[in-house]
Amino acid sequence: MSTEINSYIKAHKDRFLSELFELLRIPSVSADPKHKNDVLKTAEAIKEKLISAGADKVEICPTAGHPVVYGEKILNASLPAVLVYGHYDVQPADPLDLWTSPPFEPVIKDGNIYARGSCDDKGQLYMHIKAFEAMMKTNSLSCNVKFMLEGEEEIGSENLGTFVKANKERLKADVVLLSDTSILANNIPSITVGLRGLSYMEVEVTGPNRDLHSGVYGGAVANPVNVLCEMIASLKDKNGKIAIPGFYKDVETVSKKERAEMAKAPFSLKAYKKDLQIGDIRGEKGYTAPELTSIRPTLDVNGIWGGYTGEGAKTVLPSKAFAKISMRLVPHQNSEKISKLFEKHFKKIAPKSVKVKVTNLHGGEGCVTPTDSIAYQAASKAMQDTFKKKPIPVRTGGSIPIVALFEKELKIKSVLMGFGLDSDDIHSPNEHYGVFNYFKGIETIPLFFKYYAEMSKA
Ligand code: BES
Ligand code: MN
Ligand code: MN
Fold it and tell me: Alpha helices of 1-35 — where are they, by DSSP H?
């Protein structure tokens, strides 16, 4: 690669870090209406950064929710176009007391940048803006590029479908490039080639019309917390299979050959258990941990509440109980269909003594991306250059619903070239991102553009 780009990156290293810090200081929590203005402030900051990096037609595009920041550099209509996607919103930072330093006051400790969003996804998004700047300033940009940076990924990208449909012409590109996933380790590069889909439900179980004295009524009146627990427990059988009729109907069977291929990726169950301080893993029988979190669907309670949870004891038979339940889906399962199956089943298993309300909070489809495409090959070659090792294709368990949406609406495939680590504690207290990873991304992205342009021509 042109040493010129690398010298540019090196010469501006401190500024590349301090600019990221500026973004990390704005609490762009999309889920919290109190931070609506911070989300907007982040969009404005990103707009300025895109402009100074050299992008044209930079615009904050309003949606019914948080805005999309768009910008582009069209060099020549005959060159391939890369659509860069990222999200500048972040997850809520709580529980705050578990952070060792405040979530919106970034600091570097032991080579890691600690802050909410450092990895997911401000840090990874900003690598693209800095890589773009480096290519622009060294006159080495070899593709047309379009940026579409959104502000509500963490709450389900609810308005992005509408935005994409309304901007098909403007978003036209040959490939989508995004960094919002991880590599296996800093010395084991990988490229994500599959993500799970998601159905996220909330349930409300109502027993008696008001809270009751648990002595006076307890024993004769259904306790909605007890009932909810029984209902949830029945959603999986003793082999860890989800007991919702029809749930597995569309699940893709991954061939033995592909499973054997997947098993080549390094994984230590012992280290995994040690890291999480768990005695054993638990899941559907017959699958390894990496399989359970990538090619198999699952169902998890994300939160459950009801009754008295304050100090000390209060004898009460509560009127209501609630839970948030998510299902991670695999390719071919349809989120809407699964949400309906869940609702139907959950209502069916409710005893007469309670009423049940089921709400579908959000959902999205999973995806598998090709490894035989020019774009994948370009990403692979780029990472091989910077990591000195050929990246391994891996499927992972998280969800980025926009990937399936791009494919459906724009007919373009994505390359998931992320640089995070699973141990970066995204969504958790003390989220961090390696300084190594940040600069590895900034160095690798220009190589992707270079190889993608070269290979497209051939
Ligand atoms: N970047 C993550 C998804 C991810 C993380 C993919 C790690 C692969 C490895 C993304 O920001 C995210 O958190 N997505 C949500 C889904 C969304 C609909 C709320 C998720 O997976 O929970
Ligand atoms: Mn993300
Ligand atoms: Mn996330």
Answer: 3-11, 13-24
